[in-house]
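Write out the bound-state structure for FE2/S2 (inorganic) cluster.
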Amino acid sequence: MSTVTDKIVPEPDEQAGRRGFLAAAITAGAAYAAALAYPVYRYLASPIEQSAAMSAVTEVALKDAQKLSPGSVLMFKFGTQPAMLIHHKDGQWVGLGAVCSHLGCTVQYQPGPNRIHCYCHGGEYDPQTGANIGGPPPRPLKKYVVKVTDEAVVVSRA
Ligand code: FES
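---
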């Protein structure tokens, strides 16, 4: 007479193989989740990071910009945002943000007609004040304080 008392017990090597497979599956799942989450994180964090970078910058010194001839413009970055320094023909210096208040295109100063124009949808701004004077822009351009020294033009937040 025989009794069946033998249990099927996995061999030690087989148990280690299962644990290894489980660990590899968990690692691969975590890596896959991270790969999916990172672009979402970057998308959501970008405006916050840009805002923090912008608020960290309070002034920009533009070396030798005092030599800019009247009736011309110098494009530069104020933090992460494009900006412009206009030296008007009457000698006045004006610092303005160059981001259109409509949908964020970069605007350009046109000395001939003496206007700031946005090519995206035809927005227009006053080059002295940055006021929105035509087209779809709902707000004026950001205005900066300009100080001219012997070595540079310093543009700072108002
Ligand atoms: S983005 Fe400038 S007018 Fe639309």
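---
The longest strand covers residues 72-78.
Helices lie at 12-56.
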